[in-house]
Structure formats: C-alpha cells, structure tokens
Amino acid sequence: MKRILVLCALVSSHLFVTAQKVDKKLQQQLEVLVKDFKGDIGVYVKDLHSNKVVNINADTVFPTASMVKVPILVGVMDKINRGELQYHQPLTYRDSLLYEGEDILGSFKQDEKIQLSKVMMLMLTTSDNTASLWLQSLAGKGTRINEILDSMGFVNTRVNSRTPGREANRSQYGWGQSSPKEMASLFEKIYKGEVISNAASDKMLRLLNRNYYDEVAISQLPPNALVYSKNGAVNQTRNETLLVKGNKAEYVFCIMSKNNQDSSWNNENEAWVLTRKISQLLWNYYEPKSKWTPAVDASKFD
C-alpha cells in the first residue's frame, strides 16, 4: 500500500510539472533584465499556446503580500459551490472586522449590510484588507484554504496569517507564501476552468479582470488586451501575476521579489520599474505586430 501511495504521489508530481520546454531565447532576454536587481527575484512565464516556459528562481518561496487573496478567493468559491455560502447573500459588517488603512469596507458603520459578492469584488479589485480578512474567515480560515491548495497539488502556496500551526511561516513570509511557478499555475488552472468548477472558475476570472492597480505590469499592455491579474506589495516585496490574451498572444507570468533594497512606494521603485520592463518585453515578444507602446504622457495619470 505504501508503495502504491508513493507511486501515486510521484505520478501526480510528474503530471503537475509535465516536461516543460524552456524558451531559451526569452530566458536569455529576461536573465539580462533581472541580473542587476538589488534583491531576490523570481520569474515564471508560460506561453499557453506552445507551453514553453521561462524559469528564473520560479520554485523559490516568496511572501505573497496581497496575492494571497487569490487563494482566499478559491476558498470562498469552494464554500459557494458546496452551498454553504451564496454569492449574493447579505452580510452584516461589524466594527471588530476593521483592518486599519484606506480600505473602503473599513469606512462602513456597525451593522451596515453588504452582499458577499461586493466584498469579494473589493478584495480583488481594490485589494481591500478588511474585506480579505473577513472572507478568509468565511472560507473556513487558512486551514481549509490550505487543504484545497494541497488537494490541487500546490506545495508552496499557503495562507499563513490567522492559521494555527503556521506561526513560524507567518514570521518568515507574512500573510501568505507561494512561488512564481505555483501562482502562475493557479491562474492558468482558473483560466482553463479547472478550479472548483467551470462555473466557479468563470466567476473568478471576471473578478480578476477588474484590477484597480493598473500602473505597473498592466500599464505596459494595450487597453484592449484581456488581462486577469493580482498584485501585492509590502515592505521589501513587490509581486504581480498576469494572464494576458491578445489577438494571438496567450500567456501567463508571475514576478515575485523579496529582500529588496528599494522599499520606496513611488512609481520609480526598482522592482516596479523592472516589472514594467518585463511586461513590455513579454507583450512585444508574444504579440510582435501589435505596434503599441504606452503613451508618452501616461505618467501624468500614475
């Protein structure tokens, strides 16, 4: 029996990392871009047509910052799929839910009503932390979310905050942890309708298509490109995951960093500048005939 279980685990692992071919040309271009970065960086790119990839520290574990909200989304969708929550069910806000900051939900008054669907929108669109912690609790807390991630074959992606037994991980990585490859793979699975159910995946895609924070990687894409994304930033970490569909292009990429020397919050932050360069390079690489470049005066709106 033990041998069978080990064999199954090996087969499962093999299927998850199915022999991927490296795009050597693109790998070299990205390695040149990231080589002087002052911090630890990981990049994973996958062309969804050819399945060719780029791996730069793609299996290294990084803090997720707000990208942990995608696993939280999966946890809530699982509850909805099981009939334990309803997408539009009314919820009652309590002052005890407040997470101090600029969040919209945190401006609510005690006993105000809001639909679950709107709380989910706030979590994904404006990265509302009060909404996110509320949803994490409704999803069955980090423990249940991590069980779902484990069942999907993810070994690096976990919720740490407010999750019993993960105190040491929280101390090291904060709210959540993942790797560029796993976070990009989670987006790919959602895109292919493989997370929870086809209907749940469709709804998650719609939520991931409304990102308010569009001034870094998204800013390097034409406004008519189809983009599903989530980003996250805290202290010395800057992360972003995008799944992009153009006229011909169809690719997913994740950039994660930690121990960044530049921890500034302006648009010239080193990690954000690098992220823009990578995003622009990828778009021009996969959609070479688009002839689109960001407007020269776009910085006025950043």
Automatic annotation (TrEMBL):
Catalytic activity, EC: 3.5.2.6
SUPFAM superfamilies in the cross-refs: beta-lactamase/transpeptidase-like (SSF56601)
Residues in Beta-lactamase class A catalytic domain copies: 42-256
Record-linked InterPro entries: Beta-lactam/transpept-like (IPR012338), Beta-lactam_cat (IPR045155), Beta-lactam_class-A (IPR000871)
Signal peptide range in chain numbering: 1-19
Keywords on record: Signal
Catalytic activity: a beta-lactam + H2O = a substituted beta-amino acid
Biological process, per Gene Ontology: beta-lactam antibiotic catabolic process; response to antibiotic
Molecular function GO labels: beta-lactamase activity
Family per similarity comment: Belongs to the class-A beta-lactamase family.
PANTHER family assigned to the protein according to its UniProt record, in alphabetical order: BETA-LACTAMASE, BETA-LACTAMASE-TYPE TRANSPEPTIDASE FOLD CONTAINING PROTEIN
Name of the protein in question: beta-lactamase
